Amino acid sequence: GASADATQADWANTHLALDGLIELETLRGNVPRVSSYLTYQEALYNAYEGDTEKALQTARALAAYESAHGQEQLLPLVHKAIGDDLRRLGRLKEGIAEFHEAERLAPALGTAASKTAYTEGWYGNLWLDTVKAQIELPDLEAAQNEARDFQGRVQASSPRLRAQARIGLVAVALAQGKYTAALDGVREARALLKDTPEKTSMDLDAAVIVGTVIQDTIGTLEYSEAVATATRIAAEFGDLNLGVEALARTSLLIRRRLSGDLDGVLRELTAELEEARTSGDDLAQISALQALARVVLQVSNADKFVAEPLSCVLRLPTRKGCR
C-alpha cells in the first residue's frame, strides 16, 4: 500500500494487515506494539484515503487502549491526534476540547522547556492549533485569550516557543483585520529566530502570512493605508526571497490603477522597461511588458484610440496594426 502506484484495494489490504497485527499483539500482551500499530493505522487512514472518520475511530481506540494499559505518558499525543481529526471533520468545539485535554495531560511529557526539541515543538503546535481552531469556529475572543496565555507561559522559554507564541497572536490579528499588528508580530517572530536552524521554517510561515496581508490589502483597505502597507512589506520583508517584494509591488500597482493613476503607473513601468532593455535583463523586460499590457488593456476599456497607439509605442505583446 505504500508504493506510488498503490490502488485502493492495496490500501484496504494494508489496513487489514495492520488489524491482524493489532489483534495478534493484543493476544500476546505486547502493549508497545499494539500502541505503535494503532498509531500507524490512524496515520494511514489520513494519508491514504483521507478517511478521517476511520482515523478518528482508530485514535479513540488507541486512547482507550493506552488508558487501560497504563500508558498515560502517551495520552497527550493521542488526544492531540483526536483533536486534529475532529478539526478536519469541522467538529471544532469537540476538537478544541480534545486539544485542551491534551494540554491538561501534557505534564506527563514534561515541561516544554525541559524536554527534547520534538516535545517543545509539540507544545507549540498544540497551542497554535488551538488558537487556529478557535478562529475557525469563529470565537476570536477565545482565540485571543488563548494566544495571550500561550505567550505568557513561554516568556522564559526558548526563542522557538516565543516565536510560535507571536505567530499565534499574528493569526488572531489577521482574523481581526489588524494588519499592522500582524506584520509587527511577524517581524518580531523572525527576529527571535535570527541565526537559528528554525529560521528557514519561520521564513516560509512569514511568506504565507505576508502574502495573505497583501491579498487582503488590495481591495479592503482605504487606498492610502493599502499603499502604506504594501510599501512597508516591500521594505521589511523583501529579503524573504519568495516573491514577497514583487507581490507587494504588484498589489500597489493594482491599487494605483484602480484609483485611476494610470499616467503615473505607465511612466513608472515604461522607465523600468527601458532600464531592463538597457541592462539586457530579459526577465525584467517580460515582467514590465506584462504589467504594461495589463494597464493598456485597462485603458482600452475606456478609449481604444489611446490604447492601440500606446501599445505600438511601447512594443507590447498586445499591439496590433502598428507600422
How are the SSEs ordered, and which strands pair?
Layout: H1 8-28, H2 31-47, H3 52-68, H4 75-88, H5 92-105, H6 117-136, H7 140-153, H8 159-175, H9 179-192, H10 199-219, H11 223-237, H12 244-258, H13 262-279, H14 282-302, H15 304-314
Helix pairs in contact: 1-2, 2-3, 3-4, 4-5, 5-6, 6-7, 6-8, 7-8, 8-9, 9-10, 9-11, 10-11, 10-12, 11-12, 13-14, 14-15
Structure description:
The protein has 323 residues and is mainly α. It contains 15 helices and no strands. The protein has helices at residues 8-28, 31-47, 52-68, 75-88, 92-105, 117-136, 140-153, 159-175, 179-192, 199-219, 223-237, 244-258, 262-279, 282-302, 304-314. It is elongated. The chain starts with 7 loop residues before the first helix and ends in a 9-residue tail after the last helix. Mean pLDDT is 83; it is low at 302-311.
Q: Roughly how many Å is the radius of gyration?
A: 27 Å
How helix-rich are the residues, as a percent range? over 70%
Structural shape: elongated
Which structural category fits the helices and strands?
Answer: mainly alpha
What is the overall number of helices? 15
User: Which stretches are poorly predicted, pLDDT < 50 over at least 5 residues?
Assistant: 302-311
Average pLDDT level: 83
Number of strands: 0
Strand content: under 5%
What is the chain-wise order of helices and strands?
Answer: HHHHHHHHHHHHHHH
Q: How far from one another are the termini?
A: 64 Å
**What's the story with the biggest beta sheet?**
none
